[in-house]
Amino acid sequence: MYQIKLLNKISPAGLENFDRDLYSWAEEMEEPDAIMVRSASMHDMELPKSVKAIARAGAGVNNIPCDECAANGVVVFNTPGANANAVKELVLLGLLISSRKVAPSMEWIKTLKGEGDQVSKLVEKGKGKFVGPEISGKALGVIGLGAIGVLVCNAASALGMKVYGYDPYLSVDAAWGLSHKIQHATSLKEIYENCDYITVHVPCNKETKGMINSESIAMMKNGVRLLNFARGELVDSADILEALDEKKVSCYVTDFVTDEQIGHPGVVAFPHLGASTPESEDNCARMAALELIDYLENGNIKNSVNMPAASMPKSKYTRLCVIHKNVPSIISKITTVLSDNQINIENMVNSSKQEMAYTMMDVSGTVSDSVTDILTAEDGIIRIRVI
Ligand SMILES: NC(=O)C1=CN([C@@H]2O[C@H](COP(=O)(O)OP(=O)(O)OC[C@H]3O[C@@H](n4cnc5c(N)ncnc54)[C@H](O)[C@@H]3O)[C@@H](O)[C@H]2O)C=CC1
Ligand SMILES: O=C(O)C(=O)COP(=O)(O)O
């Protein structure tokens, strides 16, 4: 029986993919084989040795110690694109709400309660305070052209915006998805200098942390509107508040508010709502569950952020799955141990991603505990599973 530990609320649309005869799932599990998580931070969590995989039902994995997991043979999956449409829709709202003073106008309307037949007169008299520009015809810079960035580019372009896209690591798939109308920005400077609105859709990592700071803001147009639906740490909080005070930035829309930003008139904040739609929660949970099932039952790896992809069709043979370092001579060590023990390799895949490699073999012959013990003791071999 496989045990799945749930660190966040995971949609039943995902959980119902687990065969009840093979799997049990709950928030508390003694010896989980796998963990399903959304945004809960796992950095200070001690992982039980039983954990073989973690599935992030979502895109960002900065809440998971991915490198440490790799070093311990724990495969970390995410669900690329599964919540991108939900985020795109909220970004469109963000563009509009950063322009038209919708939120304060709604608050002001409440103050008119009790004015009886004067309401319409007061509305017409007061509405001038809430004027804001149209987005059509304005320039939007999209930083990060992955699943979300591409959808945002195309939707904003369809609404009449002139869209600049920047992504030095643009994938071929993403490029195929981009409308031909999107201007290819070759530097961040080009985005900063040309755009009335800027939205970031990059992962939070060493390279991107704090990328929006006083230096980058200084390059932007006066009155620029900034949107951050990616991660709070991408934006230096003190610098953005100063830029708002100086009216250099006219609005900061964020899904990741900090304490000091709450209540600032230039900040429009949401409580990390980007992926919070039933459709996206279902998509993410379903994809995450299927990734875990395929790994636990078949050893196949798809959409891992810390291990190479590898898959083989199921066969009648015993499957040996080896997570190892991407260094010379590991395969020969494995094949030597197998042949010494009269085990024949029927099918095999080997793939690598940076320092990590994965070798999956269908074998005939008996894979005893002593064989796996010998293999595990080999330098560079991190984890072995026999399925
Ligand atoms: N507010 C919310 O609820 C959600 C937030 N997110 C955040 O949005 C981020 C992006 O999500 P997806 O588009 O699904 O991920 P993705 O992996 O499809 O796209 C990320 C893109 O950023 C690009 N990139 C990486 N470093 C860059 C850099 N230094 N400069 C420019 N581009 C760079 C990559 O090449 C890639 O194309 C996630 O990592 C997550 O932090 C994602 C989903 C929901
Ligand atoms: O997918 C992501 O990166 C998100 O930020 C969504 O987070 P959530 O699953 O809503 O906690």
Task: Provide keyphrases for this structure.
alpha/beta; Rossmann fold; Alpha-Beta Plaits; 3 domains; 13 helices; 32% helix; 21% strand; elongated; binds 1,4-dihydronicotinamide adenine dinucleotide; binds 2-oxo-3-(phosphonooxy)propanoic acid
Short description:
The chain is α/β, with parallel strands linked by helices. It has helices spanning 12-15, 66-71, 84-99, 102-110, 119-126, 147-158, 172-177, 188-194, 214-218, 237-245, 278-298, 330-340, 369-377, and strands spanning 2-6, 23-26, 34-37, 53-56, 75-77, 139-143, 162-166, 183-184, 197-200, 224-228, 249-254, 267-269, 318-325, 344-353, 356-364, 381-386.
Tell me the overall shape. elongated
Question: What structural class is derived from the secondary structure elements?
Answer: alpha/beta
Q: Any idea what the radius of gyration is? A: 25 Å
Terminal-residue CA separation: 13 Å
What is the second-level CATH architecture of the largest domain? Answer: 3-Layer(aba) Sandwich
Q: Which stretches of 5+ consecutive residues score pLDDT under 50?
A: none
SSE series: EHEEEHEHHHEHEHEHEHEHEEHEHEEHE
Overall structural domain count? 3
Number of strands: 16
Query: How many H/I helical runs?
Result: 13
CATH superfamily of the largest domain: NAD(P)-binding Rossmann-like Domain
**What hetero molecules are bound to the protein chains?**
1,4-dihydronicotinamide adenine dinucleotide, 2-oxo-3-(phosphonooxy)propanoic acid
Strand order of the largest sheet: 8-7-6-9-10-11-12
Let me know the largest β-sheet: 7 strands, parallel
Assembly of the depicted chains: single chain
The percent range for strand residues is 15-25%
Q: Roughly what percent helix? A: 25-40%
